[in-house]
UniProtKB/TrEMBL annotation, chain A:
Its main location: membrane. Residues 14-195 form the ABC transmembrane type-1 domain. InterPro entries: AA_ABC_transptr_permease_3TM, ArtM/GltK/GlnP/TcyL/YhdX-like, Ectoine_EhuC, MetI-like, MetI-like_sf. One of its GO terms (biological process) is amino acid transport. It comes from Marinomonas pollencensis. One of its GO terms (molecular function) is transmembrane transporter activity. The chain crosses the membrane at residues 20-42, 63-92, 183-205. This is Polar amino acid transport system permease protein. Keywords: Amino-acid transport, Cell membrane, Membrane, Transmembrane, Transmembrane helix, Transport. One of its GO terms (cellular component) is ATP-binding cassette (ABC) transporter complex. It is found in: Cell inner membrane; Cell membrane.
TrEMBL record, chain B:
PANTHER family: AMINO ACID IMPORT ATP-BINDING PROTEIN, GLUTAMATE_ASPARTATE IMPORT ATP-BINDING PROTEIN GLTL. It is found in: Cell inner membrane. GO terms for molecular function: ABC-type amino acid transporter activity; ATP binding; ATP hydrolysis activity. Belongs to the ABC transporter superfamily. PROSITE patterns: ABC_TRANSPORTER_1 (PS00211), ABC_TRANSPORTER_2 (PS50893). This is Polar amino acid transport system ATP-binding protein. Its main location: membrane. The keyword Cell cycle does not apply.
Amino acid sequence: MEFGEIVSVLLQGAIVTIKIVAMALPLAAFMAFTFGLVRLYAPAPFKQLSILYIEFFRGTSALIQLYWIYFVLPFFGLSIDAMTAGVIALGLNIGAYGTEVVRGAIQAVPKGQYEASVALNFTSSQRLLRIILPQALVNMIPPFGNLAIELVKATSLVSLITIADLTFKAKSLADMTLQVGEIFVVVLVLYFAMAQCLSLFFRYLEKRLSRGLGRGGMN
Amino acid sequence: MSQPIIEFKNVQKRFGDTTIFDDFSFKVEENEIVSIIGPSGSGKSTLLRILMTLEGIDGGYINVAGESLWHMLWNDRYVPASNKHLHKMREQLGMVFQHFNLFPHMTVKRNITEAPMRVKGLSRQDAEESAEALLELVGLADKAESYPNDLSGGQKQRVGIARALAMRPAILLLDEITSALDPELVDEVLDVIRNLAKEQSFTMLLVTHEMYFAREISDRVCFFDKGKIVEEGVPEDIFSAPREERTQAFLNAYLGQ
Protein backbone atom coordinates (compact mmCIF):
# COMPACT_ATOMS: atom_id res chain seq x y z
CA MET A 1 0.00 0.00 0.00
CA GLU A 2 1.23 3.45 -0.80
CA PHE A 3 2.36 5.69 1.98
CA GLY A 4 -0.24 8.36 1.12
CA GLU A 5 -3.02 5.81 1.44
CA ILE A 6 -1.73 4.59 4.77
CA VAL A 7 -1.68 8.15 6.07
CA SER A 8 -5.20 8.86 4.89
CA VAL A 9 -6.58 5.70 6.51
CA LEU A 10 -4.79 6.48 9.74
CA LEU A 11 -6.04 10.06 9.65
CA GLN A 12 -9.60 8.75 9.60
CA GLY A 13 -8.74 6.83 12.76
CA ALA A 14 -7.18 9.92 14.27
CA ILE A 15 -10.38 11.84 13.69
CA VAL A 16 -12.30 9.22 15.67
CA THR A 17 -9.70 9.47 18.44
CA ILE A 18 -10.04 13.25 18.48
CA LYS A 19 -13.82 12.92 18.67
CA ILE A 20 -13.53 10.67 21.69
CA VAL A 21 -11.13 13.07 23.38
CA ALA A 22 -13.37 16.01 22.56
CA MET A 23 -16.31 14.32 24.28
CA ALA A 24 -14.51 12.61 27.16
CA LEU A 25 -12.56 15.70 28.17
CA PRO A 26 -15.61 17.83 29.03
CA LEU A 27 -17.10 14.85 30.87
CA ALA A 28 -13.88 14.42 32.83
CA ALA A 29 -13.77 18.12 33.66
CA PHE A 30 -17.39 18.06 34.76
CA MET A 31 -16.79 15.04 37.00
CA ALA A 32 -13.60 16.56 38.38
CA PHE A 33 -15.24 19.86 39.37
CA THR A 34 -18.44 18.29 40.63
CA PHE A 35 -16.84 15.65 42.80
CA GLY A 36 -13.90 17.88 43.76
CA LEU A 37 -16.28 20.51 45.14
CA VAL A 38 -18.51 17.86 46.71
CA ARG A 39 -15.48 16.33 48.38
CA LEU A 40 -14.59 19.71 49.91
CA TYR A 41 -17.89 21.35 50.70
CA ALA A 42 -20.79 18.87 50.70
CA PRO A 43 -22.26 17.09 53.75
CA ALA A 44 -20.56 13.88 54.87
CA PRO A 45 -22.58 11.26 52.94
CA PHE A 46 -21.89 13.05 49.64
CA LYS A 47 -18.22 13.31 50.53
CA GLN A 48 -18.17 9.55 51.04
CA LEU A 49 -19.77 9.08 47.65
CA SER A 50 -17.09 11.24 46.10
CA ILE A 51 -14.32 9.27 47.79
CA LEU A 52 -15.91 6.02 46.62
CA TYR A 53 -15.96 7.30 43.04
CA ILE A 54 -12.36 8.43 43.15
CA GLU A 55 -11.03 5.27 44.76
CA PHE A 56 -13.00 2.96 42.50
CA PHE A 57 -11.92 4.56 39.24
CA ARG A 58 -8.33 5.06 40.31
CA GLY A 59 -8.05 1.64 41.87
CA THR A 60 -9.24 -0.49 38.96
CA SER A 61 -7.93 -0.82 35.44
CA ALA A 62 -9.32 1.52 32.80
CA LEU A 63 -9.60 -1.38 30.39
CA ILE A 64 -11.71 -3.39 32.83
CA GLN A 65 -13.90 -0.35 33.44
CA LEU A 66 -14.39 -0.08 29.70
CA TYR A 67 -15.29 -3.77 29.44
CA TRP A 68 -17.72 -3.46 32.29
CA ILE A 69 -19.54 -0.56 30.72
CA TYR A 70 -19.62 -2.10 27.26
CA PHE A 71 -19.88 -5.85 27.88
CA VAL A 72 -21.23 -6.37 31.38
CA LEU A 73 -23.82 -3.63 31.81
CA PRO A 74 -25.97 -5.07 28.98
CA PHE A 75 -26.56 -8.09 31.24
CA PHE A 76 -28.19 -5.69 33.65
CA GLY A 77 -30.34 -4.34 30.86
CA LEU A 78 -28.21 -1.30 30.11
CA SER A 79 -26.96 -1.43 26.55
CA ILE A 80 -24.95 1.44 25.18
CA ASP A 81 -23.13 1.79 21.89
CA ALA A 82 -19.38 1.42 21.77
CA MET A 83 -18.65 5.10 21.25
CA THR A 84 -20.73 6.20 24.25
CA ALA A 85 -19.24 3.43 26.39
CA GLY A 86 -15.74 4.57 25.44
CA VAL A 87 -16.45 8.20 26.22
CA ILE A 88 -18.10 7.38 29.54
CA ALA A 89 -15.37 5.00 30.70
CA LEU A 90 -12.53 7.36 29.81
CA GLY A 91 -14.33 10.46 31.08
CA LEU A 92 -15.08 8.85 34.43
CA ASN A 93 -11.59 7.42 34.73
CA ILE A 94 -9.71 10.63 33.99
CA GLY A 95 -12.34 12.61 35.92
CA ALA A 96 -11.50 10.62 39.06
CA TYR A 97 -7.90 11.78 38.87
CA GLY A 98 -9.09 15.29 38.05
CA THR A 99 -11.20 15.34 41.22
CA GLU A 100 -8.06 15.21 43.30
CA VAL A 101 -6.49 17.93 41.17
CA VAL A 102 -9.45 20.23 41.83
CA ARG A 103 -9.42 19.48 45.54
CA GLY A 104 -5.67 19.94 45.88
CA ALA A 105 -5.65 23.20 43.92
CA ILE A 106 -8.45 24.70 46.02
CA GLN A 107 -6.77 23.66 49.24
CA ALA A 108 -3.51 25.20 48.03
CA VAL A 109 -5.06 28.69 47.94
CA PRO A 110 -3.76 30.40 51.09
CA LYS A 111 -6.20 30.52 53.99
CA GLY A 112 -5.77 34.29 54.22
CA GLN A 113 -7.65 34.64 50.93
CA TYR A 114 -10.67 32.98 52.46
CA GLU A 115 -10.37 35.12 55.58
CA ALA A 116 -10.14 38.34 53.60
CA SER A 117 -13.22 37.36 51.62
CA VAL A 118 -15.14 36.72 54.84
CA ALA A 119 -13.98 40.05 56.26
CA LEU A 120 -15.24 41.79 53.12
CA ASN A 121 -18.56 40.04 53.63
CA PHE A 122 -18.71 38.12 50.35
CA THR A 123 -21.31 35.34 50.35
CA SER A 124 -20.02 31.78 50.32
CA SER A 125 -20.66 31.36 46.61
CA GLN A 126 -18.96 34.69 45.82
CA ARG A 127 -15.97 33.61 47.91
CA LEU A 128 -15.67 30.43 45.90
CA LEU A 129 -16.37 31.84 42.44
CA ARG A 130 -14.65 35.22 42.65
CA ILE A 131 -11.80 34.70 45.08
CA ILE A 132 -10.85 31.06 45.56
CA LEU A 133 -11.55 29.39 42.19
CA PRO A 134 -9.83 31.99 39.98
CA GLN A 135 -6.64 31.40 41.95
CA ALA A 136 -7.12 27.64 42.22
CA LEU A 137 -7.73 27.37 38.48
CA VAL A 138 -4.19 28.51 37.78
CA ASN A 139 -2.86 25.74 40.04
CA MET A 140 -5.05 23.22 38.22
CA ILE A 141 -3.90 23.92 34.68
CA PRO A 142 -0.57 22.05 34.62
CA PRO A 143 -1.93 18.83 36.20
CA PHE A 144 -5.03 19.10 34.00
CA GLY A 145 -2.72 19.30 31.00
CA ASN A 146 -1.08 16.06 32.10
CA LEU A 147 -4.44 14.38 32.48
CA ALA A 148 -5.61 15.54 29.06
CA ILE A 149 -2.55 13.94 27.51
CA GLU A 150 -3.16 10.80 29.56
CA LEU A 151 -6.64 10.78 28.11
CA VAL A 152 -5.37 10.97 24.52
CA LYS A 153 -3.16 7.99 25.14
CA ALA A 154 -5.84 6.05 26.99
CA THR A 155 -8.19 6.35 24.03
CA SER A 156 -6.27 3.54 22.34
CA LEU A 157 -8.14 1.18 24.71
CA VAL A 158 -11.40 1.78 22.85
CA SER A 159 -9.97 -0.11 19.88
CA LEU A 160 -10.70 -3.19 22.00
CA ILE A 161 -14.44 -2.53 21.97
CA THR A 162 -14.66 -2.30 18.18
CA ILE A 163 -14.23 1.44 17.77
CA ALA A 164 -12.24 2.32 14.65
CA ASP A 165 -9.91 4.79 16.34
CA LEU A 166 -6.29 5.44 15.42
CA THR A 167 -4.96 2.33 17.15
CA PHE A 168 -7.69 0.14 15.69
CA LYS A 169 -6.98 1.39 12.16
CA ALA A 170 -3.27 0.90 12.67
CA LYS A 171 -3.65 -2.68 13.81
CA SER A 172 -6.00 -3.65 11.05
CA LEU A 173 -3.83 -1.93 8.45
CA ALA A 174 -0.77 -3.73 9.82
CA ASP A 175 -2.54 -7.09 9.69
CA MET A 176 -3.60 -6.40 6.12
CA THR A 177 -0.44 -4.91 4.62
CA LEU A 178 2.33 -6.07 6.98
CA GLN A 179 3.92 -2.61 6.49
CA VAL A 180 4.38 -2.42 10.22
CA GLY A 181 7.23 0.07 10.26
CA GLU A 182 5.61 2.81 8.20
CA ILE A 183 2.25 2.41 9.89
CA PHE A 184 3.47 2.63 13.42
CA VAL A 185 5.79 5.55 12.70
CA VAL A 186 2.77 7.48 11.41
CA VAL A 187 0.71 6.39 14.43
CA LEU A 188 3.40 7.57 16.78
CA VAL A 189 3.64 10.93 15.06
CA LEU A 190 -0.12 11.39 15.10
CA TYR A 191 -0.48 10.63 18.83
CA PHE A 192 2.47 12.89 19.55
CA ALA A 193 0.96 15.71 17.49
CA MET A 194 -2.33 15.45 19.36
CA ALA A 195 -0.56 15.48 22.72
CA GLN A 196 1.54 18.47 21.66
CA CYS A 197 -1.49 20.45 20.63
CA LEU A 198 -3.04 19.88 24.05
CA SER A 199 0.22 20.65 25.76
CA LEU A 200 0.55 23.98 23.95
CA PHE A 201 -3.07 24.82 24.61
CA PHE A 202 -2.72 24.25 28.35
CA ARG A 203 0.51 26.24 28.47
CA TYR A 204 -1.30 29.11 26.79
CA LEU A 205 -4.17 28.82 29.28
CA GLU A 206 -1.77 28.88 32.19
CA LYS A 207 -0.16 32.03 30.88
CA ARG A 208 -3.50 33.72 30.32
CA LEU A 209 -4.89 32.84 33.73
CA SER A 210 -1.84 33.59 35.82
CA ARG A 211 -1.79 37.29 34.99
CA GLY A 212 -0.87 39.06 38.21
CA LEU A 213 -0.15 35.79 39.97
CA GLY A 214 3.30 35.46 38.46
CA ARG A 215 5.57 36.00 41.39
CA GLY A 216 4.97 34.17 44.64
CA GLY A 217 5.12 35.57 48.14
CA MET A 218 2.59 37.26 50.33
CA ASN A 219 -0.25 39.29 48.99
CA MET B 1 -22.61 56.75 79.24
CA SER B 2 -23.79 55.44 75.91
CA GLN B 3 -23.91 51.78 75.11
CA PRO B 4 -20.50 50.29 74.22
CA ILE B 5 -20.08 49.46 70.53
CA ILE B 6 -18.26 46.22 71.38
CA GLU B 7 -18.96 44.16 74.46
CA PHE B 8 -17.60 40.73 75.42
CA LYS B 9 -19.51 39.06 78.26
CA ASN B 10 -17.97 36.02 79.95
CA VAL B 11 -16.60 34.76 76.66
CA GLN B 12 -14.94 31.37 76.45
CA LYS B 13 -12.75 30.22 73.61
CA ARG B 14 -10.79 27.02 73.28
CA PHE B 15 -8.62 25.48 70.59
CA GLY B 16 -8.74 21.78 71.39
CA ASP B 17 -7.28 21.44 74.86
CA THR B 18 -5.88 24.95 74.90
CA THR B 19 -8.04 27.56 76.59
CA ILE B 20 -7.60 31.00 75.07
CA PHE B 21 -10.36 32.84 76.92
CA ASP B 22 -12.03 31.71 80.10
CA ASP B 23 -14.71 34.10 81.30
CA PHE B 24 -13.38 37.05 79.35
CA SER B 25 -15.16 40.42 79.47
CA PHE B 26 -14.22 43.53 77.58
CA LYS B 27 -15.80 46.74 76.28
CA VAL B 28 -15.03 49.31 73.62
CA GLU B 29 -16.91 52.61 73.35
CA GLU B 30 -17.98 54.13 70.08
CA ASN B 31 -15.18 56.05 68.32
CA GLU B 32 -12.68 54.80 70.84
CA ILE B 33 -9.22 53.74 69.69
CA VAL B 34 -7.99 50.79 71.70
CA SER B 35 -4.58 49.17 71.37
CA ILE B 36 -4.00 45.64 72.54
CA ILE B 37 -0.43 44.76 73.46
CA GLY B 38 1.07 41.70 75.03
CA PRO B 39 3.17 38.61 74.40
CA SER B 40 2.34 36.31 71.50
CA GLY B 41 -0.12 33.56 72.27
CA SER B 42 -1.97 35.76 74.73
CA GLY B 43 -5.17 35.80 72.63
CA LYS B 44 -4.79 39.26 71.10
CA SER B 45 -5.33 38.21 67.51
CA THR B 46 -8.00 35.70 68.51
CA LEU B 47 -9.99 38.59 69.98
CA LEU B 48 -10.01 40.35 66.60
CA ARG B 49 -10.67 37.14 64.68
CA ILE B 50 -13.69 36.37 66.87
CA LEU B 51 -15.06 39.85 66.17
CA MET B 52 -14.50 39.40 62.43
CA THR B 53 -16.41 36.08 62.68
CA LEU B 54 -13.35 34.12 61.58
CA GLU B 55 -13.44 32.18 64.86
CA GLY B 56 -16.48 31.09 66.84
CA ILE B 57 -16.82 31.16 70.61
CA ASP B 58 -17.45 28.34 73.05
CA GLY B 59 -19.37 30.31 75.65
CA GLY B 60 -20.59 33.74 76.66
CA TYR B 61 -21.97 36.57 74.55
CA ILE B 62 -20.59 39.29 72.35
CA ASN B 63 -22.50 42.40 71.41
CA VAL B 64 -21.57 44.59 68.47
CA ALA B 65 -23.47 47.84 67.99
CA GLY B 66 -26.19 46.67 70.34
CA GLU B 67 -26.75 43.30 68.67
CA SER B 68 -25.50 39.89 69.58
CA LEU B 69 -22.70 38.84 67.20
CA TRP B 70 -22.60 35.09 67.54
CA HIS B 71 -26.21 34.59 68.62
CA MET B 72 -29.60 35.74 67.46
CA LEU B 73 -33.04 35.91 68.95
CA TRP B 74 -35.31 33.15 67.77
CA ASN B 75 -38.66 32.59 69.49
CA ASP B 76 -37.42 34.71 72.41
CA ARG B 77 -34.37 32.53 72.88
CA TYR B 78 -30.77 33.11 71.90
CA VAL B 79 -29.60 30.57 69.36
CA PRO B 80 -26.32 30.35 67.41
CA ALA B 81 -26.19 32.91 64.62
CA SER B 82 -27.18 31.91 61.09
CA ASN B 83 -25.03 32.80 58.09
CA LYS B 84 -27.55 35.52 57.30
CA HIS B 85 -27.17 37.03 60.74
CA LEU B 86 -23.38 36.92 60.53
CA HIS B 87 -23.56 38.52 57.10
CA LYS B 88 -25.58 41.39 58.54
CA MET B 89 -23.28 41.78 61.54
CA ARG B 90 -20.17 41.89 59.36
CA GLU B 91 -21.46 45.09 57.77
CA GLN B 92 -20.22 46.84 60.92
CA LEU B 93 -16.73 45.39 60.77
CA GLY B 94 -13.64 45.70 58.67
CA MET B 95 -10.26 44.05 59.10
CA VAL B 96 -6.70 44.64 57.96
CA PHE B 97 -4.48 41.58 58.13
CA GLN B 98 -0.88 41.02 59.12
CA HIS B 99 -0.14 39.31 55.80
CA PHE B 100 -2.27 41.73 53.74
CA ASN B 101 -4.33 38.97 52.07
CA LEU B 102 -4.89 41.05 48.95
CA PHE B 103 -6.46 39.22 46.03
CA PRO B 104 -3.49 38.58 43.72
CA HIS B 105 -5.63 37.97 40.62
CA MET B 106 -7.19 41.43 40.78
CA THR B 107 -5.73 44.85 40.18
CA VAL B 108 -5.40 47.20 43.12
CA LYS B 109 -8.50 49.03 42.00
CA ARG B 110 -10.55 45.85 41.72
CA ASN B 111 -9.32 44.68 45.11
CA ILE B 112 -10.98 47.80 46.48
CA THR B 113 -14.12 47.93 44.30
CA GLU B 114 -15.05 44.22 44.23
CA ALA B 115 -16.72 43.99 47.63
CA PRO B 116 -18.54 47.35 47.50
CA MET B 117 -19.94 46.33 44.10
CA ARG B 118 -20.77 42.69 44.80
CA VAL B 119 -21.72 42.92 48.46
CA LYS B 120 -23.11 46.41 48.86
CA GLY B 121 -24.43 46.72 45.33
CA LEU B 122 -22.66 49.97 44.49
CA SER B 123 -22.53 50.90 40.82
CA ARG B 124 -19.16 50.51 39.14
CA GLN B 125 -18.84 54.27 38.81
CA ASP B 126 -19.55 54.93 42.49
CA ALA B 127 -17.25 52.13 43.61
CA GLU B 128 -14.42 53.37 41.40
CA GLU B 129 -14.80 56.96 42.52
CA SER B 130 -14.68 55.85 46.12
CA ALA B 131 -11.65 53.63 45.38
CA GLU B 132 -9.80 56.51 43.77
CA ALA B 133 -10.47 58.71 46.79
CA LEU B 134 -9.25 55.97 49.11
CA LEU B 135 -6.12 55.37 47.06
CA GLU B 136 -5.49 59.11 47.25
CA LEU B 137 -5.89 58.90 51.00
CA VAL B 138 -3.31 56.12 51.33
CA GLY B 139 -0.99 57.78 48.81
CA LEU B 140 -1.28 55.20 46.05
CA ALA B 141 -3.36 56.98 43.43
CA ASP B 142 -0.84 55.97 40.74
CA LYS B 143 -1.05 52.25 41.53
CA ALA B 144 -4.73 51.64 40.72
CA GLU B 145 -3.98 49.43 37.73
CA SER B 146 -1.06 47.52 39.30
CA TYR B 147 -1.34 44.00 40.59
CA PRO B 148 -0.56 43.36 44.27
CA ASN B 149 2.56 41.38 43.41
CA ASP B 150 4.09 44.47 41.83
CA LEU B 151 3.83 46.43 45.09
CA SER B 152 6.14 46.66 48.10
CA GLY B 153 4.93 45.33 51.44
CA GLY B 154 4.10 48.79 52.70
CA GLN B 155 2.15 49.57 49.56
CA LYS B 156 0.27 46.27 49.81
CA GLN B 157 -0.72 47.05 53.35
CA ARG B 158 -1.94 50.51 52.41
CA VAL B 159 -4.11 48.87 49.75
CA GLY B 160 -5.30 46.49 52.48
CA ILE B 161 -6.39 49.47 54.55
CA ALA B 162 -8.12 51.13 51.59
CA ARG B 163 -9.90 47.87 50.79
CA ALA B 164 -11.24 47.56 54.33
CA LEU B 165 -12.30 51.22 54.41
CA ALA B 166 -14.16 50.89 51.12
CA MET B 167 -16.83 48.88 52.95
CA ARG B 168 -17.30 51.80 55.38
CA PRO B 169 -17.14 49.76 58.56
CA ALA B 170 -18.07 51.33 61.88
CA ILE B 171 -15.34 49.29 63.51
CA LEU B 172 -11.88 48.76 62.04
CA LEU B 173 -9.82 45.82 63.26
CA LEU B 174 -6.07 46.04 62.66
CA ASP B 175 -4.25 42.78 63.27
CA GLU B 176 -0.50 43.42 63.61
CA ILE B 177 -0.59 45.28 60.36
CA THR B 178 3.11 46.20 60.36
CA SER B 179 4.55 42.95 61.72
CA ALA B 180 5.28 41.48 58.30
CA LEU B 181 6.92 44.65 56.97
CA ASP B 182 10.54 45.64 56.62
CA PRO B 183 11.32 48.27 59.28
CA GLU B 184 11.72 51.09 56.77
CA LEU B 185 8.21 50.47 55.43
CA VAL B 186 6.44 50.57 58.79
CA ASP B 187 6.02 54.33 58.98
CA GLU B 188 4.24 54.78 55.67
CA VAL B 189 1.55 52.39 56.91
CA LEU B 190 1.33 53.87 60.39
CA ASP B 191 1.01 57.36 58.90
CA VAL B 192 -2.17 56.28 57.16
CA ILE B 193 -3.63 55.07 60.44
CA ARG B 194 -2.51 58.25 62.22
CA ASN B 195 -4.47 60.29 59.70
CA LEU B 196 -7.51 58.09 60.12
CA ALA B 197 -7.30 58.38 63.88
CA LYS B 198 -7.31 62.18 63.70
CA GLU B 199 -10.74 62.08 62.13
CA GLN B 200 -12.01 60.07 65.10
CA SER B 201 -14.97 58.98 63.04
CA PHE B 202 -14.80 55.30 63.73
CA THR B 203 -13.88 52.76 66.31
CA MET B 204 -10.46 51.15 66.00
CA LEU B 205 -9.21 48.08 67.71
CA LEU B 206 -5.60 47.30 67.02
CA VAL B 207 -3.23 44.56 67.99
CA THR B 208 0.28 45.88 67.68
CA HIS B 209 3.90 45.51 68.68
CA GLU B 210 4.65 49.14 67.82
CA MET B 211 4.66 50.53 71.34
CA TYR B 212 5.39 54.14 70.47
CA PHE B 213 2.63 54.08 67.91
CA ALA B 214 0.18 52.55 70.39
CA ARG B 215 1.07 55.22 72.90
CA GLU B 216 0.61 58.03 70.42
CA ILE B 217 -2.61 56.92 68.79
CA SER B 218 -4.69 55.18 71.46
CA ASP B 219 -7.37 56.41 73.81
CA ARG B 220 -6.80 53.29 75.84
CA VAL B 221 -4.18 50.56 75.95
CA CYS B 222 -4.87 47.01 77.15
CA PHE B 223 -2.06 44.73 78.20
CA PHE B 224 -3.01 41.11 77.51
CA ASP B 225 -1.45 38.04 79.00
CA LYS B 226 -2.75 34.47 78.92
CA GLY B 227 -6.21 35.45 77.73
CA LYS B 228 -6.77 38.12 80.35
CA ILE B 229 -6.48 41.87 80.45
CA VAL B 230 -3.80 42.26 83.06
CA GLU B 231 -3.85 46.03 82.99
CA GLU B 232 -5.56 48.76 81.01
CA GLY B 233 -5.68 52.51 80.99
CA VAL B 234 -4.73 55.66 79.14
CA PRO B 235 -1.41 55.29 77.30
CA GLU B 236 0.52 57.56 79.69
CA ASP B 237 -0.36 55.41 82.67
CA ILE B 238 0.39 52.11 80.99
CA PHE B 239 3.65 53.16 79.42
CA SER B 240 5.00 55.52 82.10
CA ALA B 241 3.70 54.00 85.27
CA PRO B 242 2.56 50.42 84.80
CA ARG B 243 1.25 48.97 88.05
CA GLU B 244 1.44 45.29 87.29
CA GLU B 245 4.69 43.41 87.37
CA ARG B 246 3.93 41.49 84.18
CA THR B 247 3.22 44.73 82.30
CA GLN B 248 6.49 46.19 83.54
CA ALA B 249 8.43 43.11 82.50
CA PHE B 250 6.85 43.10 79.07
CA LEU B 251 7.43 46.79 78.45
CA ASN B 252 10.99 46.57 79.71
CA ALA B 253 11.68 43.79 77.27
CA TYR B 254 10.11 45.77 74.44
CA LEU B 255 11.32 49.24 75.09
CA GLY B 256 14.58 48.34 76.76
CA GLN B 257 13.89 50.59 79.68
